[in-house]
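Case study: Petrobactin import system permease protein FatD.
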Amino acid sequence: MQKNFIPGIENGSQYRIYNQNKIWTKPFILAIIVVISLGIVSLFTGVYDIRGQEDGMDMFFITRVPRTVALMLTGAAMAMTGLVMQLITQNRLVEPTTTGTIEWAGLGLLFVYLLFPGPTLVLRMTGAIIFSFIGTMIFFLFIKRVRLRSSLIVPIIGLMLGAVISAVSTFMGLFFQMSQVIEGWFVGSFSSVQAGRYEYLWIIVVVTFLIFIYANRLTLAGLGEDVAKSLGVNFNTLILVANGLIAVAVGIVAAVIGNLPFLGLIVPNIVSMFRGDDLRSNLPWVCLIGMGTITLCDIISRTIIIPFEVPVSLILGSVGSVVFIAILLRQRKPRRQR
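Here is what the predicted structure looks like once written out:
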């Protein structure tokens, strides 16, 4: 039987799909230029006059370059973990801040400090990664048993679990007189980043590469457990792999930088609004916009009350909370009014 169709409409639809999945488009190249520009501004932003001092170039490579590189890697990591978590939970409001993952990482750091006085960065990262993985698995097991799966219930469960873990961490910090560890972790800042203290963030590049390899299977997992299994995907193993990659990225950022709220919520939602839910084609966009967002917030944190510096988590949390409320209101808006 001959199919009736309009060639122009079909070809136009195929072109739009092809164009949407392309990575090297004019908007993407423009976004790269904007992010590079923000990186250059970050390199030359600060109180110390690197051009007027004899050791200016030394300070440039000891502090400014590592800080800018750390901003890029951290922004990509947190935005990427938010994208993966939203995909496998089928929920736009899920990210490490709203699942308790970041609070579990803080608890892991506290345990490392209790067991090993004056721990190395590798020990802190290991503790944060292990506890992040445990916390993320507990969250997934918890929501798997909850039948009411509305878009609001899932992040509320995560926020509840995160609040409990945060309370446990605070109590332990006060009981063992290590509250300075908790306070330092809650204030996410790049002010302490310098050469020799950020290089482990390069592991995030490996994590990104692995997520790109698993991108198609993670996209299928985002269709639901039943659909993924019917298409030949080992759903449970894939969830373990995804949680492991998320734990590595979050643990490294928590150990090196600290708590960076809402970055994994803002960026993936913005990208999904314009490009859909294909992880493979969205991942470069998410990483790039994550870099630009955190770099812009850091520049603001360094200049808003110059010569002093505001923690970047304060700027990021303020922007993220507004976007979080906007997303909530948008989801509650009746479909006929959209």
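For the exam, be able to explain this: The two ends are 39 Å apart (CA to CA).
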